[in-house]
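Narrative of activities, Objective 1.

The group set out to show that a structural description can be obtained from nothing but a protein's sequence at a throughput compatible with the screening campaign. Below is one input-output pair from the validation batch, recorded exactly as produced.
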Amino acid sequence: MRLEYLVDVEEISIKEYLMLLGLSRRLARKIKLYGKMYINHQEAFNYHLVKKGDLLTIEFDETLNQEIVANPSELEIFYNDDDLMVVNKPHDLAIQPSRRHQEDNLISRIKAFFIDQEITSNIHIVNRLDYATSGLVLVAKNGYIHHQLTSKNRINKKYQALVTGKLLEKEGTINLPIARLVDGEIKRGVSETGKTAITNYKVLVEYENTSLLELILETGRTHQIRVHLSHIGHPLVGDKLYGTEEKRLYLDCYYMEFIHPQTKKKLIFSKEVKWNV
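Output recorded for this entry:
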């Protein structure tokens, strides 16, 4: 990881400047212990002062997690640069390794790509999708970019879902709190003691027995879309946990937009959702 900043404030210590930039204390400490810093190409340390017009360079190497198995299975890449990438996760694929998904998961596929491209940094997943959900996933290539994307950057996402039945109101907002139903279990439900959860929906197409919806989340609770639609009587098609027993879950994160932490440009990604309905 190499970061360069043209200092735009009056005299301040490097440590204070890093905090001003929004680096987490954890990342700043890692840079102090394992990285190198330069002021105008001269090696420097945390206590050294920078002033307006100085070039501050930070070098910090991350290494790929050696415990993760690399899997060269198909990886659909929508975007890729030195700082981040956007990939399309298939349905029924775990994001990260687990006891049941040790050999094949999204991170293991990304690791194989990193090795092939001789990328040595670690893999930082920014937005997570359930095992059964398909769609766009944002990946940061170092801890700094991950921190910038999660702490200072709003990532706007849109989903499409196929639900059972036809909704009386074709557009609306579901504002119902969600909580874990039983400690230690994955299933969630609407509960007065739960955390605030807000889902905006719009009916795109109505079929004979199902409806295609566009959904935008104002909050990001676990299983939020699935719980909300099930609660109002329109569970997602293929949702074995909250609804029906179809062969797959029809839920896809098809749209994503955010500001690139380095270039400050708005990036927009959209994909066609291909379902046989």
